[in-house]
Each structure stands twice: as C-alpha cells, then as structure tokens.
Amino acid sequence: MLHISVCYASANGEFLRPLTVAPGTTIGQAIEMSGVLEAYPDINLTTQPVGIYAKKKTLDTVLRERNRIEIYRPLVADPKESRRKRAARREGAPGRTGS
Q1: Is residue 96, in this structure, part of any structural domain at all?
Q2: Which domain holds residue 36?
Q3: Choice between 37 and 79, residue whose per-residue pLDDT is larger
Q4: Is residue 82 within a helix (H) or strand (E), and if so which, with residue range?
Q5: What's the confidence (pLDDT) of residue 95?
Q6: Is the terminal CB of the chain with fewer CB neighbours within 10 Å at N or C?
Q7: What CATH number did the domain enclosing 67 receive?
Q8: Span 21-36, mean pLDDT?
Q9: HSE, side-chain direction, 13 A CA sphere, residue 67
Q10: Residue 77 located in a structural domain
C-alpha cells in the first residue's frame, strides 16, 4: 500500500487528506477517493491543473509512495501584469532615481 495525500486550498479553506491507496492508483482515482470533489463542488478537473509537489501532472499519472497531489486554482491576477504595476509604482516613488 502507498501513503499519499490530496490537498486543495480555496479562498474558503483548506483540504488536506492523507490516504492509503493500492499500487497502480492514479492521481484521478486518488482525487475521487479523497472526497475533495464533494467538499469543493466547484473543482473542475477538466479545466484545473493537478500536480505532485508543484510539478504539473496528468490525471492518469500513477502514484508513488508519499506523493502529495495538489489541485491548482486559476490565477486571480496575471503575474506579468502584477510585476509591471509594481515596477511602475517603484519608478514613480519619490526619492528614487532611475539607472
């Protein structure tokens, strides 16, 4: 048997469930067994990526001992646009000079 965990973080709370699964179990099967889809019905596995320790994987990826399955939420803001806005604020701050 393999010891794994399934985690998901939403704006309303966190889900972290340790599971014991049979060898050959896939990410998709473990997510189904965990109960996260019942706890967070807004999860859509066809559009939301999943991964193991911050590395994106497919739902048919076979699990290994101590894997932590993560279900990722869509980004609220575009990281590139956020960086541009921060840089623009820094450039306009008093007492700073450009190089």
Answers
A1: no
A2: 2-91
A3: 37
A4: helix 79-91
A5: 57
A6: C
A7: 3.10.20.30
A8: 97
A9: 26
A10: yes
Pair 18, 3: CB distance under 8 Å: yes
> Per the confidence metrics, is the pTM higher than 0.85?
no
Torsion sign over Cα 26, 34, 68, 14: positive
| The pLDDT of residue 39 is above 90 | yes
97 occurs within a structural domain: no
Confidence at 69, pLDDT banded by 50, 70, 90 = very high
13-27: b (≥16 Cβ within 10 Å) or e:
eebebebebeeebbb
Q: Could you tell me which residues come within 8 angstroms of residue 43 by beta carbon, excluding any fewer than 6 positions away?
A: 8, 36, 37, 71
The whole-number average pLDDT for the span 36-63 is: 95
Number of domains making up the chain: 1
The fraction of the chain above a pLDDT of 70, given in percent, is 90
* 8 located within any domain: yes
Instruction: Please enumerate in sequence order all residues whose Cβ is within 8 A of that of 71, keeping only pairs 6 or more positions apart, or say none.
Output: 6, 7, 8, 31, 36, 43, 45, 48, 50
Between CA 97 and CA 64 the distance in angstroms is 53
CA dist., res. 4 & res. 30, Å (int): 9
